[in-house]
Design goal:
Multidrug-efflux Transporter Regulator, Chain: A, Domain 2, 2 domains, elongated, homodimer, DNA-binding
Chain lengths: 145, 145
DNA sequence: GATAAGGGTTCCCACTGTTGGAAGGTCAAG
DNA sequence: CTTGACCTTCCAACAGTGGGAACCCTTATC
């Protein structure tokens, strides 16, 4: 099976398959004499695993670890669980940050008349932060996730 | 005031101030004879506005619009409000996606013994998605936000 | 056998936003 | 006059993904 079919079968674009191979997330596959990559069913299986993990928000590095555990038949499920729960904690943290942003903005928007006059509490707040409640205290995000 | 002081006073790093200038988010400022950028209090004020908007999760493009409204004394607060609420909707969408990921993973983790045995429902699910409930249906994220 | 369509291959660029560093000029204090 | 802390520009990198160019391969059709 060539890369296009593998892409269709796995839901991972051909571009990304090449990228994953280049960056070592997946091992290089065999090639035809002409240089075409050849994929087997297990390869596609692995690609689907990767896609599913991305769907769950794992970073490529996280997936690297997951793949390691997946391939390791002597793994301990505790390791997988820890990896998953760490990721859940990251997600929840990110959610809280976004939630804070959204609720702050919503509060401000609720105070804004939203008419044809120029005065607007949203701009006022951006201009001169009045330390509105931000449950987490720390506000600044540092990685896009 | 030079860029370092402006950075300290605004909370925007010198690097980012230069970047914002280069990309046209903020207009170029005056320079000393030696080429040092000179910032005034209003400049720092604007930088603080920008930083605050970034803290609320606005993209640079969003900030561009906000700045335009901020500077426009004939603006209509309705435009600001619309901008803000659109952003809130984006945030809430993203939150829902992350929430789905987190709850799916949490459900799976709860089913995982987390012991020294290798069998693990998390890996099983990644391997062969059993279409767990994902309230939104569409799952794949397409922009990092 | 020639040709065209629709693959594949590599490589480079763009995006978002931010950081890091190198090479070199400048300013203020000692 | 030197030293250290600034400033300047330029270049690279990060994570992931998409777009596209230039070129090769395969297959079907004429």
């Amino acid at each position: 099976m060539n890369i296009g079919e593998a892409a269709k079968g796995s839901g991972v674009s051909a571009k990304m398959i090449r990228y994953y191979e280049e960056t070592g997330l997946i091992p290089p596959v065999a090639r035809t004499e002409a240089g075409y990559r050849i994929y087997s069913d297990p390869d596609v299986h692995m690609l689907r695993f990767i896609r599913r993990a991305r769907d769950l928000g794992f970073s490529v590095d996280g997936i690297r670890e997951l793949l390691g555990l997946w391939r390791d038949h002597d793994r301990q499920s505790a390791d997988v669980k820890r990896l998953a729960l760490t990721h859940v904690a990251d997600l929840r943290l990110k959610i809280r940050e976004l939630e804070d942003m959204a609720s702050t903005l919503e509060t401000l928007a609720a105070c804004c008349h939203g008419n044809d006059r120029p005065d607007c509490p949203i701009l006022s707040e951006l201009e001169a932060p009045t330390s509105l409640p931000t449950k987490t205290g720390k506000f600044r995000k540092q990685n896009g996730f």
